[in-house]
Each structure stands twice: as structure tokens, then as C-alpha cells.
Amino acid sequence: PAAERRRAQVLAAYALTLFDFAHQPGLDGDRLAEINRWEFQLEEALDGQPAGQPIFVLMAVEETAAPWRREGLDKLLSAARRRAARGASEKPLRPGDDHLLADGLAELLLGGPPGDDAVRLASAILAVARLRADAGRALPASWAGALDKRPTTLPRRWRPAARYLQLASRRILENRRRAERDAPDRRGSQIGAATRLAFLLRARLFG
After folding, report:
1. CA distance 58 to 203
2. What is the pTM of this model?
3. DSSP secondary structure string, 46-97?
4. Neighbours of 94 (CB within 10 A)
5. What is the pLDDT along the chain (207 residues), one digit of tens a residue?
6. What is the phi/psi pair of residue 202, to 5°?
7. CA–CA separation, 100 vs 94, rounded Å?
């Protein structure tokens, strides 16, 4: 639905900016200080104080429509602090790295505590997104399995979007394996417009 799509876009913009701070070069303390400042400014905006940054204005608008779950926001901030403390140049990919971030995003999007299936699916999708930037990594089997299970435990209004992300993520993995076999110097993670449209129609019509 349009309202939830707009809310998801606002959340994505907030999370991307938050993790930009976490990935900045420099000292851990400087990155953590930026995240703390970002948290304080968001709290002020959600409490109704004037917000300078456009993203805080948008977050505050969505807060009036449906309050953001503070537990979900705390998980995002904790995930960003963990990322910042580990160092901007370190990018390990192991089970659990994306779990906290996935848990927070799922809770904020769904408006309540997400089930285990939702968190596993979100973790797998985030992991695939990371894989696109690093040809040397492999997706753990436990995460890959989450891309095969239909998202029937999600609220019905979210199932088409989740199904689309599953289809797209699986194709990225297939393209990647094919490229590593036939053309190791290429990552093969791109999906053409026609394929994306086909996945969109399939997700909306058949789930």
C-alpha cells in the first residue's frame, strides 16, 4: 500500500544515513559520536521539536501517523554501533552479522515484534546485498534456505514484496554462481529490467 511504501522509503533513507556514519574512515570514537548525535537528533524530532535534517522531518511525519517502535530503532542503532566499533575497513560476513539489523528493520516495517521467519528472510536478503559488493564471499546455507520458503507467516499485505525480494535474491545468487564458473572476473549480480518486471508480476499475482 502507498502509505506503507512511503514509510519503508523513509526508514530506508534513515538507515542508510545511519550506516554511512558507521562506515566512515577514522577513529571508532568519532564514528560512535556521530551515531550518538544522530540518535539524539532523532529523539528530539520524534518528541515534536523542530528538525533540521529532512530525514528527521520525514521520520516525525510518519511518527504522527503511526509511532515508530522504539525497540526497533534501538536495534538499528545497536547494529550501527557494532559496525562502527568493528572498523570501517572490516567486512566479515558470518551468521549473526546482519541479524540485529534485520530484526530492527523487520520490527519497524511490520509494526510489531517480527517472527523468526521474517528475521531470517530479512537477514538473508541483507546478506545477498552485501554479496553483490564482494565476489569472494559465499552465502551460508542457513540463509540461502530462507530464500526458498514462501513468506506465508508475514502479514498478507507484505507477502508480495517479500516474495519479490526472494525471487530477485535467488536470481542474483544464480547469476553469481554462473559468472564465477564461466567468467570469474565478473560478479554477475545484475538483474535485467525484463526479469525484474517478470518477478514483480509473479510476486503480485501468484505470491
Report:
1. 29
2. 0.84
3. HTT----SHHHHHHHHHHHHSPPPHHHHHHHHHHHHHHHHH-TT-----TTT
4. 9
5. 889 999 999 999 999 999 888 888 878 788 899 899 989 999 999 998 887 789 999 999 999 999 999 999 999 999 999 888 876 555 554 556 678 999 999 999 999 999 899 999 998 888 888 776 665 566 666 667 788 888 888 999 899 999 999 999 999 888 888 877 776 555 556 788 999 999 999 998 876
6. -60, -45
7. 13
